Amino acid sequence: MHLTPGYTTGLSSYLFGNILLVSSLDLIALLALAIVLTALFTCYYRPILYSVFDSDFARSRGLNARSWNLAILIVASISMVLSIRLVGIMLLMSLLTIPQGIMLRYTTNFKYVIIGSIGLNLLGNLLGLILSVTLRDIPTGVLIILIQFIFLALSQIFLWFRK
């Protein structure tokens, strides 16, 4: 797309994403990243858990917590770089923070936080896409963020009534 005469990638493309900027190579890279991340979390769940939440305990178990934390930062950086062109910084940040914030209100079990966050993201994205098709004038990313905030508000209301 960047080779098309007269077409420029502006700041708004990176803030809000632009599906037209995504190439087949980007999609293949995202798929490869998803496979690698799934394999890493499946094989090294405990070392990642120990290193992220309690580096002293990780060191007492013989793990190099600093190396694990560095590896997590590198993988997170690569994930963000590959995702920015597709979904934009605004949506990416809401997808990375809101579901985890909601799940951490209900559980401290790392596995449940991961699974619940994935579920909330899938549900929010699906509802955003459906609403975007239905409403037609509102961008999908905006609706997904709005739905994520609705999930957060409902979570807060539920916690108020639970007490």
Describe this structure in words.
- There is one protein chain.
- This protein is mainly α.
- It is built from seven helices and no strands.
- It has helices at 11-16, 24-43, 45-53, 55-60, 65-106, 110-135, 140-162.
- Helix 5 (65-106) crosses helix 7 (140-162).
- The chain is flat and about 55 Å long.
Determine the mean pLDDT: 85
Largest sheet: none
- Helices, by number, come to 7
Count of individual beta strands: 0
Shape estimate? flat
End-to-end C-alpha gap: 53 Å
- Derived from helix and strand composition plus strand pairing, the structural class reads mainly alpha
Helix content: over 70%
Outline the low-pLDDT stretches: 1-7
Indicate the proportion of strand residues: under 5%
Question: What is the element string, with H for helices and E for strands?
Answer: HHHHHHH
Cα-atom radius of gyration: 18 Å
Secondary-structure blueprint of this entry?
Elements: H1 11-16, H2 24-43, H3 45-53, H4 55-60, H5 65-106, H6 110-135, H7 140-162
Provide a short characterization of the protein structure:
The protein is mostly helical and 163 residues long.
For the structure shown, list the relevant keywords.
163 residues; mainly alpha; 7 helices; 0% strand; disordered N terminus
